[in-house]
Write a structure and sequence with these properties.
- The chain contains 20 helices and 14 strands.
- With about 525 residues, the chain is mainly α.
- It has 5 domains: about 120 residues, HUPs (Rossmann fold); about 100 residues, Glutamyl-tRNA Synthetase, Domain 3 (Glutamyl-tRNA Synthetase, domain 3, Alpha-Beta Complex), CATH 3.90.800; about 90 residues, Glutamyl-tRNA Synthetase, domain 2; about 40 residues, Helicase, Ruva Protein, domain 3 (Orthogonal Bundle), CATH 1.10.8.70; about 100 residues, Arc Repressor Mutant, subunit A, CATH 1.10.10.350.
- The protein has a 3-stranded parallel beta sheet with strand order 1-2-3. The chain has a 3-stranded antiparallel beta sheet with strand order 4-5-8. A two-stranded antiparallel sheet has the order 6-7.
- The termini are far apart.
- The structure holds glutamic acid.
- Glutamic acid binds next to helix 6.
């Protein structure tokens, strides 16, 4: 089997549980589903898996929708969009699941279990005392309180009395379960290692496993592309397809490698982000209970296309050297076969590098549009034309628009003082006089272009029998306040004759008694 075996229309789903903000690992899962669906002209749907009410977090569903929308990952069907296989929120489908659980009880693939939490706990403790693990499975189920050990009447009575129960899957003993994974190949698991997972609870809610399989079936999902953490559940899922008699339309599975910490091993966590100072969530998130704020890629100044590009390459290698790829290129090149089996290390420097590349590709006017509010925060107003020119000249030095201020503030505000180290090293006894002497030369320039400034200064140096350094470096200090900055002629031309000369005169005034 290969992922090209897609004669039927490809239908994939992203099925997050709204238990908090979406981790970037989850974003990557959504992205791979999207790329695969688009490449095959298929459908991608958003299903919200909220059957575990205890883990429900207000605002999480909206967050997921907003985050994926920001990144340009679009759905064809789902929560907030609709579609012919809806509703797409599992809590809105609640009534659908019970008949499926009962079907499995009737066909002998599942059973009622009435054990209380205390009973199970004491079994667990007893097993621990013998240094064993307790598992509800083929070896233990016949010693527990369930419809396999109780008589039919007792079971019926308990159910009629409203006693709390769960419905558990009944794994057949000594059975090899074969899973074909598009990334990992064939994986074989013995049913003897698996526990009889709960499928349904007497509060009327299915568990993740039942709801997920029933919905994938009813929504005609052809490919399940999800995180590696779901691989251990795959044998149960395969067996559920068998138990329901749906094996011939069972989706193909692809379990994606984990996103790993930048340092050491293990899954990338929010704590790593806090510790090393980078976001692990697409958008900023405020925890509704604690009020704790976690940073987001959007608020940190990343371009959505840069985040998409970076995430696509964390775990998938298209071959070749090309790294900068638009969504359309990613759609064209994506292939499940080229997803790696091993985890992908998150690399913060690479993330910044991607953002830099996208910044360089962004129109200068657009960069300026984003930079204007930063300037306003610093109380600066400047013409759009000037800001665009500054952005054009300086963007190559930054990874983020917000970093432009640190690199360009002197374009907008004249220096109030001069860097001490620079002055010590560069300001000689005759420097102020030399700078003063250069003023008429600069004043005489009609058309204040970089070239004209260069020529004028060359003449000045020749006339004084000096090299460029002794005058150009002090002039830079006068204009910038330090020895940093772009090419001085270009900078002066951009500032204009009036402003350049004003700064030079101020400097002469300030340094005349040195
Ligand atoms: N609700 C599961 C999650 O939160 C979905 C897993 C799957 O795709 O089957 O990731």
């Amino acid at each position: 089997m290969s992922d090209n075996n897609t004669a039927q229309t490809v239908r994939v789903r992203f099925a997050p549980s709204p238990t908090g903000p979406l981790h970037i690992g989850g974003v990557r899962t959504a992205l791979y589903n999207y790329l695969f669906a688009r490449q095959h002209g298929g459908h991608m749907l958003l299903r919200i898996e909220d059957t575990d009410q205890t883990r429900f977090v207000p605002g999480a569903e909206q967050y997921i929708i907003e985050a994926l929308d920001w990144l340009g990952i679009r759905f064809d069907e789902g929560v907030g969009i609709g579609g012919e296989y809806g509703p797409y929120r599992q809590s809105d489908r609640k009534a659908m699941y019970k008949p499926y659980a009962l079907q499995l009880v009737e066909s002998g693939w599942a059973y009622y279990a009435f054990d209380t939490a205390e009973e199970l706990d004491s079994r667990r403790k007893a097993a621990e005392a013998e240094k064993k693990n307790f598992q509800y499975d083929a070896r233990t189920r016949m010693q527990l309180r369930n419809s396999l050990t109780l008589s039919e009447e007792e079971t019926a009575q308990l159910l009629a009395s409203g006693a709390p129960y769960v419905i558990r899957f009944k794994f057949p003993p000594h059975t090899d379960i074969q899973i074909h994974d598009l990334i990992r190949g064939d994986v074989k698991v013995s049913s003897d290692t698996l526990d009889d997972k709960v499928l349904f609870k007497s509060d009327g809610m299915p568990t993740y496993h039942l709801a997920n399989i029933v919905d994938d079936h009813l929504m005609r999902i052809t490919h399940v592309i999800r995180g590696e953490e779901w691989l251990p559940s795959a044998p149960l899922h395969v067996m559920l397809y068998r138990a329901f008699g749906w094996e011939d339309t069972m989706p193909q599975f692809a379990h994606l490698p984990l996103l790993l910490k930048p340092d050491g091993n293990g899954k990338l966590s929010k704590r790593d982000g806090d510790r090393l100072g980078f976001p692990v969530f697409p958008l900023q998130w405020t925890d509704p209970k604690s009020g704790e704020v976690s940073s987001g890629y959007r608020e940190s100044g990343y371009f959505p296309a840069a985040v998409v590009n970076m995430l696509a390459l964390l775990g998938w290698n298209p071959g070749g050297d090309e790294e900068i790829m638009s969504m359309d290129t990613l759609i064209e090149k994506f292939s499940i076969q080229r997803i790696s089996k091993s985890g992908a290390k998150f690399d913060l420097e690479k993330a910044k590098w991607f953002n830099h590349q996208y910044l360089m590709m962004t129109d200068d006017a657009e960069i300026a549009r984003r930079f204007m509010p930063v300037l306003a925060q610093h109380g600066v107003s400047a013409s759009e034309e000037f800001v665009v020119a500054v952005c054009r000249l300086m963007k190559e030095r930054v990874n983020f628009v917000k970093e432009l201020w640190d690199q360009t503030s002197y374009f907008f505000v004249a220096p109030e003082s001069y860097a001490e180290a620079a002055m010590k090293k560069r300001w000689k006894e005759d420097t102020t006089a030399l700078v003063r002497d250069s003023i008429p030369q600069l004043e005489a320039i009609q058309d204040f272009t970089g070239e004209a400034i260069h020529d004028a200064m060359q003449q000045f140096c020749e006339a004084h029998g000096i090299g460029f350094g002794p005058i150009m470096i002090p002039l830079r200090i006068a204009i910038v306040g330090d020895t940093k900055g772009p090419d001085l002629q270009t900078l002066m031309a951009l500032l204009g004759k009036e402003e350049s000369l004003r700064r030079i005169r101020t400097c002469v005034e300030r340094t005349k008694d040195l």
